[in-house]
């Protein structure tokens, strides 16, 4: 789930940005004004972040304070953003701004009438500086409510350069090549992939990348909105493709049983830890943070990535996720909250966290040349350069009961499929049943 994927995990990310010319233009920021016009006011911000991520976001909030004079207070919600924010609204203690980690939750908030439409200043900045796809994901019913401040690139396969070199292979260009290379890695003494199946969200990410490349963006969008049933042949085909990987004991470290007992950090450890068991691990750009911070790997030298490869002749997928800033109508300081959102829309605000590390921005005005290393630049180039071909994480667009609940819905059913991938049609039928109940259709 994005709640975990870009919150708990990206906090470790060691990818860093240098401050580029675009980010530090020297003039006052339109949103902040630089005139301390908000002195004496306080903006309350709620979000899932904790630990290093919360500290880095606080640097952004401190920069806002330096420009406007407004004080800020951050409240960590944990994973259950919707429940916590709803309770605060009912209790008369609504935050001014919420950093929402799911499209589905943003849509839920908007439909409940909780959100303030973005100001003309914010809309103008977002229209100019963000690809339309990010505007669409921040909109409900044609009204723009959310600014995607922080993004994740979730179509990256991370590998040990030593493992690939030992096997005599180079990063593959297609999914079939990746599986073939995986057998070559296995022959050299390591399993091909570490799979973190204990965390069901990792399996949804696997499915989404295969499905987007194989079925195409139109069907991806239809399935994400449940306008296409999960019993569609395209879903069965993607599950069949994924099942070939899951059931191949040469490809999955420890086989299916061990994969189901391995969480996401554990899957990274199996590749980049002190006793490697696999040559590759699929997940988002946040893998780099775990590899660097927990296992001391130098990104670009001891750990590198290649784009998730094209499946069956389709285009290479670019699946993303992110955290959107929204302003609540019931906040105590809605005006100052909107000024914060206007500031977050600027490349200067993005640069503050970017310099601290563990951050990717969908803001096109944050010059790609400002990225401090080749790996970060490649990740950002792929994400921003994909433009409107980017697709937001499908499970994060779904109702939480289907796409984001441990032990239920898509998470559980894909774990069951990892355990026994012998009947893709049956799994597709179970997914459709769960989806129909969660979507109410």
UniProtKB/TrEMBL annotation:
Belongs to the bacterial solute-binding protein 1 family. Pfam families: SBP_bac_1. The keyword Signal applies. Keywords: Signal, Transport. This is Sugar ABC transporter substrate-binding protein. It comes from the Bacteria. Residues 1-23 form the signal peptide.
């Amino acid at each position: 789930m994005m709640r975990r994927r870009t919150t708990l995990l990206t906090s470790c990310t060691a990818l860093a940005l240098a401050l580029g010319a675009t980010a530090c233009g020297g003039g006052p920021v339109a949103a902040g004004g630089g005139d301390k016009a908000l002195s004496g006011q306080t903006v309350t911000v709620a979000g899932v972040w904790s630990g290093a991520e919360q500290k880095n976001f606080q640097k952004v909030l401190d920069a806002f304070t330096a420009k406007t004079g407004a004080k800020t207070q951050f409240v960590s919600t944990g994973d259950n953003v919707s429940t916590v924010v709803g309770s605060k609204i009912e209790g008369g203690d609504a935050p001014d701004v919420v950093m929402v980690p799911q499209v589905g939750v943003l849509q839920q908030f908007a439909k409940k009438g909780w959100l303030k439409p973005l100001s003309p200043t914010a809309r103008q900045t977002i229209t100019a500086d963000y690809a339309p796809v990010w505007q669409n994901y921040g909109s409900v019913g044609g009204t723009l409510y959310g600014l995607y401040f922080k993004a994740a690139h979730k179509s990256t396969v991370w590998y040990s350069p030593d493992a690939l070199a030992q096997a005599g292979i180079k990063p593959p260009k297609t999914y079939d090549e990746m599986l073939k290379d995986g057998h070559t890695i296995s022959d050299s003494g390591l399993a091909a992939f570490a799979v973190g199946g204990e965390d069901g969200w990792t399996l949804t990410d696997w499915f989404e990348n295969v499905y987007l490349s194989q079925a195409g963006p139109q069907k991806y969008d239809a399935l994400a909105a449940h306008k296409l049933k999960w019993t569609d042949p395209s879903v069965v085909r993607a599950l069949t493709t994924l099942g070939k990987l899951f059931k191949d004991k040469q490809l999955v470290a420890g086989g299916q049983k061990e994969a189901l007992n391995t969480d996401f950090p554990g899957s990274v450890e199996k590749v980049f830890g002190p006793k490697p068991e696999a040559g590759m691990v699929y997940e988002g750009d946040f893998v780099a943070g775990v590899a660097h911070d927990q296992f001391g790997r130098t990104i670009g030298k001891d750990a590198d990535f290649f784009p998730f490869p094209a499946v069956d002749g389709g285009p290479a997928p670019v699946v993303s996720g992110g955290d959107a800033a929204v302003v609540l109508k019931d906040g105590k300081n809605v005006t100052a909250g909107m000024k914060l959102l206007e500031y977050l829309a600027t490349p200067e605000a993005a640069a503050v966290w970017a310099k601290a590390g563990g951050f990717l921005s969908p803001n096109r005005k944050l010059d790609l040349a400002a990225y401090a290393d080749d790996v970060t630049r490649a990740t950002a180039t792929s994400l921003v350069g994909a433009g409107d071909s980017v697709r937001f994480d499908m499970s994060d667009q779904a109702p939480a009961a289907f796409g984001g609940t441990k032990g239920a819905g898509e998470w559980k059913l894909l774990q069951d499929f990892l355990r026994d991938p012998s009947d893709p049609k049956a799994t597709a039928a179970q997914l459709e049943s769960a989806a129909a109940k969660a979507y109410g259709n």
